[in-house]
Design a protein that fits this description.
- The chain is of the alpha/beta class.
- Helix 7 runs parallel beside helix 9 and helix 10 runs parallel beside helix 12.
């Protein structure tokens, strides 16, 4: 999954294509400012099944030096396969568009930046057929902009400075200067830079400072961070609401089940009551026959007969009540 810092490090150049020429002076080269910029498709896949995509691809046109391509790659860590991919990107783009192709790699830590700027050749040492040596922007060469006036002079560059120094001690001062400079900027200018900066900081400690700064200075509720906080609050509220809804649903289900069970139990109880009534009637018949025959009925005999609920046993006693000489003998052979 592509991380927010990865997106911020290259998409900021889509937002302001002229940024590359302003950044180039910190990279030791002099790139003229473009007079026109066109975003090109980033999919460099051919007919083969291997998919290759550059992060950002721009066609920049200058007044004096013509057109060239700028491929921007965001690199979060060292990766041994990347130099080969970069070689493919530049060779493919040169072949397809027949234009000079520049490669800029944006990093957020010194180790990755040092690794990325080392030249890598695809041929033997004595035959360097193709050598890739990208320009690298990172904490080692991007300016530390801590003056609000300097930040105000180039807000996009100040945002990139914050992104590339996200893990550096200077980032707090950069963020304070940037937030101050953005305070008076139009919303359509400030809002995307708030978003890029927030994405670039990701989950680093400086993110909390940025959140607090823009909350005070930049109508925070309108920014990317507001959506992030909204997601956090939504998750917490979701848990609360889930518990409430669970209780409500349980009550509803309990009521539904109670109605269903009531009908089932009513049928069961009706059958039980019917059996009990039949047993009581049969017990009364037994006692009536014994009484009509003039047999003495003790309390034990009467209690045993009236408390019996077994229909078959009562039927057996009823048959014997017609012939036994004593009431107590009705239970024999039972």
């Amino acid at each position: 999954m592509v991380s927010p810092p990865h997106e911020a490090m290259h998409r900021i150049f889509q937002h302001d294509p002229g940024l590359f020429s302003r950044v180039s002076r910190f990279l030791g080269v002099d790139i003229p400012a473009p007079v026109k910029a066109t975003a090109l498709p980033t999919d460099l896949t051919e007919a083969n099944p291997v998919e290759r995509r550059v992060d950002t691809l721009l066609r920049l046109e200058t007044a004096d030096q013509g057109s060239y391509l700028l491929a921007v790659e965001a690199q979060g860590k060292k990766h041994p396969d990347k130099p080969a991919s970069w070689a493919y990107y530049t060779a493919y783009l040169w072949t397809k568009y027949r234009l000079p192709t520049a490669l800029l790699v944006v990093c957020q830590d010194h180790a990755t930046a040092t690794w990325a700027q080392q030249p890598v050749s695809c041929g033997p040492p004595q035959l360097p057929t193709l050598t890739v040596q990208p320009l690298v922007a990172g904490p080692h060469n991007m300016p530390v902009i801590t003056d609000p006036e300097e930040a105000r002079a180039d807000l996009v560059l100040a945002s990139l400075a914050a992104i590339t120094h996200a893990a550096e001690p200077d980032v707090d001062a950069i963020l304070k200067a940037l937030s101050t400079a953005l305070r008076d900027a139009p919303e359509d200018v400030a809002k995307p830079l708030v978003e890029f900066t927030a994405q670039g900081l990701a989950k680093r400690p400086a993110k909390n400072l940025w959140r607090n700064l823009v909350a005070v200075d930049l109508s925070f509720y309108k920014s990317y961070l507001a959506e992030e906080v909204r997601d956090e609050v939504r998750a917490a509220v979701r848990d609360e609401v889930r518990n409430e809804v669970r209780d409500e649903v349980r009550d509803e289900v309990r009521d539904e089940v109670r109605d269903e069970v009531r009908d089932e139990v009513r049928d069961e109880v009706r059958g039980e009551v019917r059996d009990e009534a039949r047993a009581e009637s049969r017990a009364e018949d037994i006692l009536l026959i014994l009484e009509q025959r003039g047999l003495g009925i003790s309390e034990d005999v009467r209690s045993r007969i009236t408390h019996c609920t077994d229909p078959e046993l009562l039927r057996h006693w009823l048959a014997r009540a017609v012939t036994v000489p004593k009431a107590e003998e009705v239970f024999e052979d039972a």
